[in-house]
Amino acid sequence: MNKRRSAPTLEDVAAEADVSRATVSRVVNADPRVSASARERVLAAIEALGYAPNRAARSLVTRQADSIAVVIPESDARVFSDPFFAGTLHGIATALSRTDLQMVLVMGQPDDGDGRLSKYLRGGHTDGAIITSHHRRDEFWRTAQAAGLPMVFLGRPFAPMAGMPYVDVDNVHGAALAVKHLVEQGRTRIATIAGPSDMVAGADRLTGWRRELRAAGLPDDAVVHGDFSAAAGAAAMAELLANHPDLDGVFVASDVMAVAALETLRRHGRSVPDDVSVVGFDNTDAAVEATPALTTIVNPIVPMARQAVGLLLGLLDGDQVPAAVTLSTELVVRSSSIPADRQH
Amino acid sequence: MNKRRSAPTLEDVAAEADVSRATVSRVVNADPRVSASARERVLAAIEALGYAPNRAARSLVTRQADSIAVVIPESDARVFSDPFFAGTLHGIATALSRTDLQMVLVMGQPDDGDGRLSKYLRGGHTDGAIITSHHRRDEFWRTAQAAGLPMVFLGRPFAPMAGMPYVDVDNVHGAALAVKHLVEQGRTRIATIAGPSDMVAGADRLTGWRRELRAAGLPDDAVVHGDFSAAAGAAAMAELLANHPDLDGVFVASDVMAVAALETLRRHGRSVPDDVSVVGFDNTDAAVEATPALTTIVNPIVPMARQAVGLLLGLLDGDQVPAAVTLSTELVVRSSSIPADRQH
DNA sequence: TTGAAAGCGCTAACAT
DNA sequence: ATGTTAGCGCTTTCAA
Lengths: 344, 344
Fold this sequence. Notes:
Two copies of one chain form a homodimer. Chain A has three domains: 49 residues, 434 Repressor (Amino-terminal Domain) (Orthogonal Bundle); 128 residues, Response regulator (Rossmann fold); 142 residues, 3-Layer(aba) Sandwich (Rossmann fold), CATH 3.40.50. Helix content of chain A is 43%, strand content 14%. By secondary structure, chain A is α/β, with parallel strands linked by helices. The first copy, chain A, is elongated, with a radius of gyration of 26 Å. Strand 2 of chain A pairs antiparallel with strand 2 of chain B. Chain A binds a DNA duplex through helix 2 and helix 4.
């Protein structure tokens, strides 16, 4: 029976290098107050023993976890089939790779009151959190906030709180841009497939759509909500067609839903863009690949994620950080919105 | 100046409930040896103080981190635009939600010898790891294995190791199924857009393609590699067309590449499926949505992820676990592979 | 520049 | 059933 060799500790390294634990600790933490010879011996010992510091022990005394939580309060599969999610993670991971922070992905019930999510956030395993895909009824962050955990929202929260900055895209303006473009194409009966009303992005895009329509003196009654999924987009489009057969333009609150709507329009014999102009939101790959290619609003997901990390790092450093960062959007015109008779 | 109130500890709860720390610990850890009255007082104190155990302290003594690492040795953005990644995370997250384990997403350079990845894995912050998107030159797991960290590969590693189980899909058979189907459609000049040769999935699918072609007595020289990205798929298809203008069938090692190849074929004036039959691999949403809808091989990503979690949990429990779990595939026939003259 | 010693918050013998 | 005690591995004063 071999004695199960456990991982080497600071003590082992100290013995091997013939110095004290404190000196080893200084070397590991790049403290300059170590002689060259001692440092050399310690480094050699670390190498020889394959020593890696135990983070639990370190965390216990430094009260730092060296990791941040990315909280996605979604229990269903939607978030995984949504390119928004991938872009967000990518942006966060990239921004984090410049630091020593690890990323802990925390998922759970949106309305988790004092369950897993809030327990985890208060457990001290992370130094801060980025909360995304926030729903109106979420409460888990309250206890975490009370515990003093630095947090930033990726996507404006329903009730912005002092000390909890957020980064968002100007959804209202983006939606207005989309509607403006549709109006400019000569469309007069413009519907929308809106996002879920318990999410700010959904509500804001609806607001922008409505505002611009009213400014143009056009009716703003053709609204159906979807949950940002393809299935919802297809169903919503069918419903709009049934209730408003005269529609000639649609602003869809996400590309995923828009691409599905395109298909539904096709099945109903409506030509896009000749009969109906369609504008999406996000500018994902799906927009480029759609047939016809989808006119859409740029959603700067990766820059937003980077900003969120930047804000959180600032919070962790005790810096003064802005209460909100809002990124601008722009319109990308492709074929789905320009009727043949307007093309030159 | 308010004294910054730090998080309540076991000690605080013990004082509040007028019991010892040990009793509080027992209540927290559901130890039955506590009287009802004591338990009640402790629970009340926990509630009153908003106590949450400090996981670093607990980890230090239990030597458990209550989390597992999902290692994705990819530094680039590819992994995020790949639906394979989303499915994998989804499967793992779902399987993990039944446990108390958290999921730490660890990304890094594929060839990271003794860098971040291996340091992290040896740091004791996780109880085990699931390694996915494994490349031939990866080495980071060696030191982790030496340190005794339970690990499972999601996707067969190049050199299977004792004690490190893997779960994989039968890529060779899947590819063979695809080729068999193409042959049955009367195709005789069948090319392939293969995956990267430094990944097992890429190599295995190429093997299956080759094996089946040889069995059918057909040439197996039309091969171009791609890195599973859409751009690579488009470029590879163009190259195949240039070098083998007589091709009438293509097996593409991923749906992402296949959909891009479809577009390239269209641009080159080849009709799919009339001139060229195309079969992909993965059966992602993109396959359903493609025009024409893509015939493909089912890649049971989510079940694989669940299996991986199951194996890892077994390892953590010290159970005997199989060295490998291989899931089977099947063919899903859609329009991209059946020429008009074969349809009825 | 270095070492000794205290203690982070918790669990787990051991004692009662 | 409950309390006492001894660490887990590390950082960090404080002395030397």
